[in-house]
Design brief:
Elements lengths: L1 E9 L3 E6 L5 E5 H6 L7 E8 L10 E11 L11 H15 L2 E2 H11 L7 H11 L4 E5 L10 E5 L2 H5 L11
Parallel strand pairs: 3-5
Antiparallel strand pairs: 1-2, 1-4, 2-3, 4-5, 6-8, 7-8
Length: 172
């Protein structure tokens, strides 16, 4: 008779499971664990007999065979990668770690969000800037440049220039 078991420990030389009908422990010998690719956390149907070994009082069932058609556990679904989650991630990085360039934020965003592209970070950084949540510093290497050589983004001005400078408007 087939009995459904849940693998709780799968080693090469032994294994344990739970008899899902009774809740009792099941011993799985090496002959089964070596011949079947059983995985901890998976459920299987197995042929069980009463354990007559020395630890039968603790583990009342002995597994003689595992049927290979297993019942897979549902795959965990990843959190949806929303623009809001990326927006919050970028803000969190700037708030906790200080200033970053656009390319640094882009790399970090793409490492953490599969749907992020090379341009996603810039769009979200501009949105954070437009929402007055972060600051932006464009750095030009020469006076004739139309576009900045580098753009730095931070949570506050001190992230970019440090705490040693007077950042009041009157200081200009």
């Amino acid at each position: 008779m087939r009995t459904k078991i849940l693998i709780t420990n799968a080693q090469e030389t032994f294994g344990f499971a739970i008899n899902m009908e009774t809740g009792d422990d099941v011993y799985i010998p090496a002959s089964i664990t070596k011949n079947f690719d059983i995985k901890t956390g998976q459920t299987y149907e197995a042929k069980l007999d009463v354990n007559t070994g020395s630890r039968a009082e603790k583990t009342p069932w002995f597994c003689h065979f595992i049927f290979t058609e297993q019942t897979p556990e549902p795959e965990p679904q990843p959190e949806p990668e929303t623009e809001e989650a990326m927006y919050d991630y970028i803000f969190g990085v700037l708030y906790t770690e200080g200033a970053h360039s656009t390319s640094e934020i882009s790399k970090r965003l793409r490492n953490n969000f599969k749907t992020a592209t090379m341009y996603t970070a810039r769009e979200l950084l501009l949105k954070l800037f437009a929402d007055n949540r972060i600051i932006k510093a464009d750095i030009h290497r020469s006076p004739n440049q139309q576009r900045a050589s580098l753009t730095l983004w931070g949570h506050c001005l001190e992230d970019i220039i440090g705490d040693d400078h007077d950042t009041s408007i009157d200081a200009q």
